[in-house]
Amino acid sequence: QVQLVESGGGLVQPGGSLRLSCAASGRTFSDVNMGWYRQAQGKGREFVAISGYLGTTLYSDSAKGRFTISRDNANNTLYLQMNNLKPEDTATYYCSVLQYWGQGTQVPVSS
What we know:
By secondary structure, the chain is mainly beta. The protein contains no helices and ten strands.
């Protein structure tokens, strides 16, 4: 059974940085795409970034230039490095692989 566990969230000031992690288990992940999504309170879930199993990456316009997605296939871990965070980045961030979702990690950006 696939399990995804996010960590690394927490309160950060505008302009600050955070690194989110997603520990995956239950199967091999080197042959599948892995992605990050987020959901702000009262809004729908939105795409943030995806790491393709062939090495490609794709970002939302809001993430481009500030966020970096990476993966460690040997340790089945997905990362999201977030720099220059803005209040509008405040959301619960979710890791997703295939049809599976983690429980999310909260990222409040506030002074």
